[in-house]
Write a structure and sequence with these properties.
Blueprint (H helix, E strand, L loop, with lengths): L5 E5 L3 H13 L5 E6 L2 H14 L6 E5 L7 H9 L2 E4 L6 H10 L3 E4 L4 H11 L5 E3 L8 H17 L4 E12 L14 H9 L2 E5 L2 E5 L6 E5 L2 E7 L7 H5 L3 E10 L3 H12 L5 H12 L6 E12 L5 E10 L2 E3 L2 E3 L1 H18 L5 E3 L6 H5 L5 H4 L3
Helix pairs in contact: 1-2, 1-11, 4-5, 7-10
Length: about 375
Amino acid sequence: MKQHFNIIIAGAGGIAEAAGLILAEWSEVTPSLFIGNRTLAKAQSVAQWIEEGTTKPCSVEPFLLPEQELTEEMKIIFDEADIILDCLPGSQAPRIAKLAQEFHLHYANLTECVAETDEIIALAKDAATSFILQTGIAPGYIDVLANALFQQFCIDFKVNTVDKLEFKVGALTKNAVDPHYYGFTWSPIGVATEYLKKAITIRNFNKTELPALSERTSIVIDGVTYEADLTSGGAADLPDTLAGKVRNLDYKTLRFPGHYDWIQKQLMTIGNSEKTLKELQQIMEKEIPLIENDQIILYAAVEGKDHEGILRRREISKCILPQKVGNHQLRAIQATTAAPLVQSAQLLLENNLKGVILQSQIEAQSFLNGNFIIPVYGKI
């Protein structure tokens, strides 16, 4: 941040604490931070963690953020604030976005939930402030990267359409053991949800919904073999924006070989019912451990013929490991999710923007080479 702002962070989980630490440590002018959570003790703990973690003087104020009530303390804080960074579960996103609209604040969130995103788009389309939605890693950074690849491919090779645009992300552990070949590095409910809800893709130039986990493929990235399959949420708004321009587009989640087989066996045992999501989450939480030593693997590629009919392909791959920010070590999933959120906050605060901004509408080069993005993802 190049000037002082008052920033509310809604939530007090791992991404919220990472966003607060990155803002405190990497801003040119340190903002004042307000950490809100339904459990005040948790908000206080995160506020203290950020203050202890940054090497710069920083004001971090915790406050109670109930799931429904609007308290007098909240009114005072919201009146003083410039933006809300929503790190709460996706079910809370419409409520927090409505508060942002009512208090004339900018808003940015992380949710990959499509229904809640559509609700906020309808709510905020005529807002006097700006709302960036689905800005984490996937959806988020990977969509901006994929769109940038597509746009540059078309410019360089003098074409308007391409055959393939594929982008993939895996939040993985360094090692994996049978039978599940996985370790949790982020929310179990988030993993279960993306495995069950439909994926939005483009097939034969048309926006198409496909079942999650219905198109498994293998891919070698930097010499390592992964499996990739369709999951929900990661494509953001690119299927809407690029329909008619890309023959086939999809977002897939990367996993170690063997994991998807294990998931399919669990789903066959559970069956299809209203309780499938909860039961899959419970099985995974029982069998799969939480592991701190993580890595993020991401890959994006565009393929098509140039204006002379020669088949071309461009690719970008990255492996991102945990890194130290200030006095604390952030897990890879924390840094890669929080950095795009914070970069989005800077975009909203330092530009005269209004209404809803989706991933395809973000100016790619300035975002991908932003001062909060580069330390985590490197330059493009």
